[in-house]
Structures are given as structure tokens and as C-alpha cells.
Amino acid sequence: MRSDEPTEELTVSNRALRAQIAEYQRAEKALRESEARYRALVSEVSDGLFVVDARGVITFANRSLA
Question: What does the alpha-carbon distance between residue 2 and residue 25 come to, in Å, rounded to a whole number?
């Protein structure tokens, strides 16, 4: 039955898209958690930390350095 083919293709595509969305959401959550850990570490460490760009301009300094 040819009339079922488009429906089956759409169903398969829908499942694939749902799986991709779920993977994206898992990756996004992991990134948010990683960023939160990084921010906590950098802001709470007692050592002064800073980041400079290629021109030597300080682009970030934590509280301990400030």
C-alpha cells in the first residue's frame, strides 16, 4: 500500500528528530552544569586568577585577584 509509505517515513523522521532534540537537551544541561561548576571554582578559589586576550588586555579577573 503506497498510501502508508509517507506516513511511515514521517513517523521515522519524527522519531529521529525527537532523539536529536533529546540529545541536544542532555548536552545543553551538561553544559549548564559544567559552567556552574567552573564559575563556582573560579569565583571561590583563594588564588587570584585572570585571563588576557591576544593583545594582553585583561578580560577577566576573579574576586581574589581584584
Answer: 35
Q: What is the pTM of this model?
A: 0.65
SS in 3 state form for the chain?
CCCHHHHHHHHHHHHHHHHHHHHHHHHHHHHHHHHHHHHHHHHHCCCCCEEECCCCCEEEECCCCC
pLDDT value of residue 59: 96
> Which residue in this structure is represented by grid cell 532534540?
21
pLDDT digits (tens, 9 = 90+) for 30-63: 999 999 999 999 988 999 999 999 999 999 999 9
Distance CA 24, CA 17 (A): 10
